[in-house]
């Protein structure tokens, strides 16, 4: 994976949290940088994982460990999906 160095302006108090020397911390930091773009649908988990140089499942697991959901559906959406699944199942049986 090709890396680029960028310069950003951040509050001084945050600097200590952005400088990561070990690879795992760098991946976690970079995963957090792309998470908002996954959330708003700009990129997929798969694309984010590809950009980070890790497997999609590893990225999903990392987000899960940090309390960030893979599925972001409301209870109503889940209930609707479950209802649809029941209808399909009845039609097949």
- Number of individual domains: 1
How many helical stretches?
A: 5
Number of strands: 0
The helical percent reads: 55-70%
Shape descriptor reads elongated
N→C terminal distance: 49 Å
The structure class reads: mainly alpha
Computed CA radius of gyration, to the nearest angstrom: 18 Å
Q: State the low-pLDDT regions, or none.
A: none
**What portion of the residues fall into strands of 2 or more residues?**
under 5%
One letter per element, helices H and strands E, the order comes to HHHHH
Largest sheet: none
What is the mean pLDDT?
Answer: 91
Main traits of this protein?
93 residues; mainly alpha; 5 helices; 0% strand
């Amino acid at each position: 994976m090709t890396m680029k160095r960028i310069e950003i302006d951040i509050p001084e108090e945050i600097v200590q949290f952005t400088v990561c020397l070990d690879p795992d911390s760098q991946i976690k930091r970079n995963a957090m940088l792309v998470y908002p773009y996954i959330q708003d649908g700009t990129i997929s988990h798969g694309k984010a994982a590809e950009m980070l140089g890790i497997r999609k499942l590893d990225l999903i697991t990392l987000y899960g460990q940090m309390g960030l959901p893979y599925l972001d559906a409301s209870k109503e959406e889940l209930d609707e999906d479950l209802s649809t699944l029941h209808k399909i199942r009845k039609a097949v049986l």
